[in-house]
Amino acid sequence: MSNANVSLVQSLYAAFGRGDIATVVAAMAPDVVWTLHGRPIDHPAMATAKGPQGVQKFFAIIADTQTATAFSPQQFYSVDDKVFVLGHYAWTMKKTGKKVDTDWVHIFTVKAGTVATFDEFADTAQFADAMRG
């Protein structure tokens, strides 16, 4: 089961890399909870989105606010229904032109072949500084 979960998560990163957000959203459970840990006053995507529509809105916020200059999931670990991914990304904020360059941890919970929860932990202070300009 955990190999299938890792394969699912890897396929979602590949879809994101192609700009295929519809495939990512289609893999969400109907009651998915998608959380970027941080303060919404620092970045509008730092919040909890619920349901596939909420995840779609999350990706729209990302597209509206920033441009990826690097996105690299690097290590995948699975335990039971969880997939832990360590990676790195860099973004340029559209409003300010300021850059963010940080490592991150993503934690997926996979149930019945769909994403039930997603949690991201990254250097939120960089995002706050870059959004403020």
Report on the architecture of this protein.
The protein has 133 residues and is of the alpha+beta class. It has one domain: Nuclear Transport Factor 2, Chain: A (Roll), CATH 3.10.450.50. Helix content is 35%, strand content 45%. The chain is built from 4 helices and 6 strands, in the order ααββαββββα. The protein has a 6-stranded mixed sheet. The longest helix is centred in the first third of the chain and has 17 residues. It is globular, with a radius of gyration of 14 Å. The chain starts with a helix and ends with a helix. The relative contact order is 0.21. The mean pLDDT is 96.
List keywords for this structure.
alpha+beta; 4 helices; 133 residues; single chain; 35% helix; Nuclear Transport Factor 2, Chain: A
